[in-house]
Design brief:
Length: about 200
């Protein structure tokens, strides 16, 4: 089972020109549709005189949701080629926007597809693509006498502690890669007095 996915580390830009038309491309790492909306609003403000703001995104790690938008260009000449590049580079949690400044000469269907595709490729090529782990988070509940055992197990298994809460009783939130989750759950549930719960 694969528990890794590819995304981009930080935002990047690209450019493609054809017959006077300029295609400015922007790739952004995103986590949800709220972020997508905000970025699109900002770009439309920044490029308010541009003719089209076409985009596509892929969001999710195991179940991937996609969307493509032609923003007034002929059907499937902009959004689809942009999405096609996100798929061919196999990146997710990425929004790719191509802003077009019209140069006065019509490019035709194949010209548009080519322009949006190449502008997209340029932005992704200028981004740093990174592999990330699909992780599971667990909440541990236990009493003070078990503190040493729990902390030792966390250290031995090389688990990441997200946060802790040691007040009346002890709570710790830990992360592990998905392929390891079953083993970790079993390990802690076998320690008498420790309650382990998978977080959504």
């Amino acid at each position: 089972m694969n528990d890794e996915y590819k995304t981009i580390e930080t935002a990047s830009t690209g450019l493609f020109k054809d017959k006077g038309s300029k295609f400015l491309s922007y790739a952004f790492p995103v986590k949800n549709e709220e972020e997508v909306k905000e970025i699109l609003q900002n770009l439309k403000k920044e490029h308010h005189s541009a003719r089209h703001h076409c985009y596509a995104w892929r969001i999710g790690t195991e179940e991937i949701t996609t969307r493509a938008n032609d923003d007034g260009e002929p059907s499937s000449t902009a959004g689809k080629p942009i999405l096609g590049q996100l798929q061919s580079f196999d990146v997710t949690n990425v929004l790719l926007v191509v802003v077009r400044y019209f140069g006065g000469t019509l490019l035709g269907t194949s010209g548009l597809i080519n322009a949006y595709k190449n502008a997209s490729i340029d932005a992704i090529n200028n981004a740093k693509i990174v592999s990330k782990l699909i992780e599971c988070e667990f909440e541990l509940n236990f009493t003070y006498p078990l503190m040493n055992t729990v902390m030792q197990t966390i250290k031995q298994e090389n688990l990441e502690i997200v946060t802790t809460d040691f007040k009346e009783s002890c709570k710790a939130w830990i992360k592990t890669r998905k392929t390891n989750a079953h083993k970790i759950e079993k390990l802690f549930s076998e320690i008498y007095g420790v309650d382990i719960k998978l977080q959504n």
